[in-house]
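Data deposition worksheet. Section B asks for the primary sequence of the deposited chain exactly as it was used as input, without tags or linkers unless they were present during the calculation. Section C holds the resulting structure in token form. Section D is free text for depositor observations; keep each observation to a single sentence. Incomplete worksheets are returned to the depositor.
Section A, Depositor: J.P.
Section B:
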Amino acid sequence: MRWRKFASGSRLPGISEERLLRVGRDYVASAFPNPDRVGCPGRARLEILARQRAVPDQEDVEHLMSCSDCFTEYHAIRTAWRQKTAVILGTLVAAAMAVIVISGVVIFRHRNAAIATAPAKRPVEIAHAPVRNNLLDLRPYERSRGESENSGRLSPPLLDRANLLVTILLPIGSPEGQYVFQLIDSNGASLVATTGNAAIRDYVTTAVAPFDLRAFAAGRFTLTVRKSDQTAAAAYSVEVR
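Section C:
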């Protein structure tokens, strides 16, 4: 068995630091839902932290590590900023992930459920673009008899290659609450992971979530949808154009 030694002197079997960081990021992004955003610092503060305009204090770090909604929003802001400026991941994320790696909590309690995925390949710079609205209606693609694929008789729903705020109409009977959405390529790699709080609007369970698809190539992808407190996910074919 191969062992890797970390800076702290601790050892974990056969796993690189990069893989541990990715597992920790995915865990924090879904393990602490806070749909009511209780105690959250607000988007303006998250933008300041994500763009390294201020040194984070202990309260900032503790909140991000215990609020999946703020962590996901922070990570989305940080990713978009990195794409534009081509800088490396900031001190806050690196330090926070290091805490998770050293503690070993993610590896020993969640190693069977966590799947590390390769990050999306993105160009060094992406031109600034305003956020665009996109509607994704999944109701015609309800699963039946355990099926996880869209009906072959229907064309897949469309997503634009843009910085999107997507309104997702969930299948009939979907409960309210926090949802996790992942966009997966044909190789099974997770390219986008985001969350949104779903509520019933005009008799339809509706969620809103950010999707930055500016660096994507056009084509077919798989969108997985699951409640943040569940492990089972529904899968839908979508087309990015």
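Section D:
The two ends are 45 Å apart (CA to CA).
DSSP finds six helices and ten strands in the chain.
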